Amino acid sequence: MDRNLIRKANLQLLLDREYGAGKHGAKADFAKKVDKQPDYISRCLYSPEKKGGKNIGEDFARLIEERFGLARYAFDSPGLGGAGDVIDIEGLPSALAQKIKTYKPVIEIERFDIAASMGQGTEPPDMNMIVEHMRLDAGWVRQNLVYTSTENLKLISGRGDSMAPTIRSGDALIVDAGVTSVESDAIYFFLMRGQQHIKRIQRNLDGLTIISDNSQYREIDVPADREGDIQVLAQIIYWWTGRSY
């Protein structure tokens, strides 16, 4: 479970335990004890996505433990360290309760039987077949990747040497299928003239430039009136670089 969500849930638990569930003025009493304003405590209970919300930082968590006589780091454990891995969402603001309820500690990414070309292009398969799933720690994904949605994350591989040394032939690639247009300079998985490619695409004032990181491959300029010839399937957002011996 995400530590920020645990701390928010524990804040509500401590409020209810010390001052009574739903008691008027409980936040004000709590805030006074930890040298904060009541509004600050309310914002700490907001769902992470809500505008104006606050995360409970390291110093504040330790201060709460000290002021309420809790064991050190109890605020980082579900149920203040007394309820195993289960968090009671009753009494939490609805948005935060829903966030905790739907939290996934592991994200499964579909791996497709696709080896896109990092060279002259390859024919797309007749059918996009899922061959396996890769399980990744959700915390690692959220900390290290920038993506549109976890549902849009897919796994493919690349074949060829045009993107070397950045991406090597056979590397596993995480793609974001929610990106279907060139909005910024990045590496994309795309169709051009019916062929699948993985290349870097740079947007210019008058069109696009398709770039291979391997200098042995020439750049391809695509004028603005021919951008429709490029169908972006996904953006490459992460890859594992490896070698076979």
Q: How would you describe this protein?
A:
The structure is a single chain. With 245 residues, the protein is of the alpha+beta class. The chain has two domains: 3-101, no CATH class; 106-240, Umud Fragment, subunit A, CATH 2.10.109.10. It is built from six helices and nine strands, in the order αααααββαβββββββ. The protein has helices at residues 3-19, 26-33, 38-44, 58-67, 94-101, 138-144; strands at 106-117, 130-137, 153-159, 172-176, 186-192, 195-204, 207-211, 220-223, 230-240. Strands 2-1-3-4-9-5-6-7-8 form a nine-stranded mixed sheet. Helix 1 (3-19) crosses helix 5 and helix 2 (26-33) packs across helix 3. The longest helix is centred in the N-terminal third of the chain and has 17 residues, at 3-19. The model has no long low-confidence stretch (mean pLDDT 83).
According to CATH, what is the class of the largest domain?
Answer: Mainly Beta
Distance between the termini: 39 Å
Shape: elongated
CATH topology of the largest domain: Umud Fragment, subunit A
The domain count comes to: 2
Number of helices: 6
pLDDT below 50 for ≥5 consecutive residues: which ranges? none
Oligomer description: single chain
The amount of helix comes to: 10-25%
Mean pLDDT across all residues, rounded? Answer: 83
Q: Element order, helices and strands?
A: HHHHHEEHEEEEEEE
> Largest sheet, described in full?
9 strands, mixed
Number of strands: 9
CATH superfamily of the largest domain: Umud Fragment, subunit A
How are the strands of the biggest sheet laid out side by side?
A: 2-1-3-4-9-5-6-7-8
* Rg measurement, Å: 25 Å
**Beta fraction of the residues?**
25-35%
Structural class, from helix and strand content? Answer: alpha+beta
The CATH architecture of the largest domain can be given as: Ribbon
